[in-house]
Amino acid sequence: QAIERRLLKTDHTAIHPHLLDMRIGQGRHHPGYFPKLQADVLAQAHNTHKYSSRITASRRTEPRRTTVADLSGMDSEPKQKYTFTRRIIRQSKLLDLSPQAVSQTHREFVDGLLSECRLKTKRMLMERMGKECVELGQGEANITGLQENTLIHGLCDLLERTWGHGLQIKQGKSAIWSHLLHYQAAQEKMEAPADVPGLDQRLSDEGTLFTRGSLIQDMRFIQTMRDDLSEVIQARAWIHLALEKKMLSQHLKELLTNQELLRQLYKPHAFLLCEEEREQFLYHLLSLNTVDYLCFTRIFTSVSIPYRVIIIPMKKLSIAMATVNPWVCVSGELGDSGVRQIPKNAQEIFFQCKNLGRLSTLQMGVQENSGLLAKCLIDCVVVYNEITGHTYKFPCGRWLGKGVGDGSLERVLIGQLVSPGAEEEAGRWSGTPPELASPSQSVRTVLGSLGGRGRMHSAEVQEDLREAANNLVKHFHKPEQEKGNLTVLLCGEGGLVLALEKFLLHGFRSNRLFQRNVFVWDFVEKAVASLETNDQMGDLHGSTPPEGPPCDSLCRYVNAINTSLRNIGKEGKFQLFVCLGIRDRLLSQWFPLLAECPLTARTYEDGALLRDRAALHSLCRILQTLNDFSITLEAALVKGVDL
């Protein structure tokens, strides 16, 4: 509409080319030179538009006063009219060299920096909080990864302008990095007397705990990243790292504690020497600690990061770790660490490798020739990023070793980032807490019961299935930068694997007096063996055994998983079975085959979900909705299986 209004008030209308009434070449004319033209003919106005004279006159003369009639025009006209006037007034203020005018100009600039900091931090905070609400299922997404990077780069520019205001002498291309280098040099001079245990931390007047070495350590890490980084890139890397560690406000506050250095570098009117505004500036930056950023991890992907992996066994059986020599392989968004052997009689390992991004899975196992005594009950595995300070917890709660549990010599654990200071709530943040990841716990809640209680359990199981599928659908409809970890949605807490495991365990019949762990994979194996036997021998009662591509693919996949070189145990095999089936869009065809298998009637009670046609039909429809999406599995999940 604004463009249409502007077209109705055009300044100039071009006319068609035509011959002018002009005697070209009047007077002297030399070949090869452009002839003189008649100025009076060229000056004749051919545009008769009613607005042309007003706008042309306004361009040729000084800005005139605005009338009421002009203000009644379109919305953008006042801005265009006053722009030039404001520019003239601003220039006149800058040309006024009186002390009062200079002081007023500096005061306005300081207030402008503080106001811009307040607006930028508020925008970053609200946008990031909106994104986290979407991840929790609340609100609507209104920010993309590109917008987030733009906001962070805008914050870097603001910090550069703030640190560049009132400099005595500009040194280098980055004002904040130059200040950091001066601070580093001053601290290194004081390192010898200050190198005493217990002085690494000090408490500020306000009660904020500072890690004295942290700021300098971050600087040294940035300086060792690459030799060819410019000062501007180094400063931005330091800001990104401090923002991700939630230490930006603390680091800058520590940087500004050296008042002597500030007076050496800055003039009295500088922003950093205005105490009240400086404190407000730092408090605005402190508000960014309430949200989580992974800006350094996701932007500086080629840097080498040191990681620490700690295996935590069950306390009662911690002595069993002495008989195990485990290995680990950590995987993230950007790659994996490769197999890392943990030293004998040790529970942790420290290694350095290329940035793995946000961590998602961890493979852990023991050597196949370790013997029957090599077994331990693992509580969880913790991975710590030594640079960003992020802690990832990978709950296990299961045995590792031969002849115990499901006999697994290798496990794939799913983990998530643990919020700082929330270790006591780690179960809420972790991917597979022991009470949900262990089959024995699931068996106690869903092992068959009839009547009203059984119906209640079946409703809960079906609701978990719908919720798991709905989370996957929402994942694929999100923008690329806002998608979470697909592996967590498949194999983590509340994921599709656990929901299908509950579905198959519902109404499972067992006649054992002392109940041992029931594994779904045992039923899948026996069902496939039954299908293969019926296919070879035929049904003795005259019924036609199931045939066709779905049956062939089911048998082929189960046999391939069983003959795999990986010793992932029965739980790991069922997890791989579900992941491969959903990836290749075959899972919705396999469950009807399992339901029609003769073994099912002997294994499940009458009220089991697998024997309920309505529940089975609902399950197949849910799984078919996932066939519209292309699912790519992590290498850690499908390693060793070529299908």
Automatic annotation (TrEMBL):
For this protein, the record's CDD domains field holds: PLAT_RAB6IP1, RUN1_DENND5
| InterPro entries noted in UniProt | DEN5A/B, PLAT/LH2_dom_sf, PLAT_RAB6IP1, Run_dom, Run_dom_sf
Top-level taxonomic group: Eukaryota
One Pfam family in the UniProt entry? RUN
Segments forming domain RUN:
146-303, 487-638
> Entry's SMART domains?
RUN
SUPFAM superfamilies, from UniProt?
A: Lipase/lipooxygenase domain (PLAT/LH2 domain), RUN domain-like
**What is this protein called in UniProt?**
DENN domain-containing protein 5B
Gene behind this protein: DENND5B
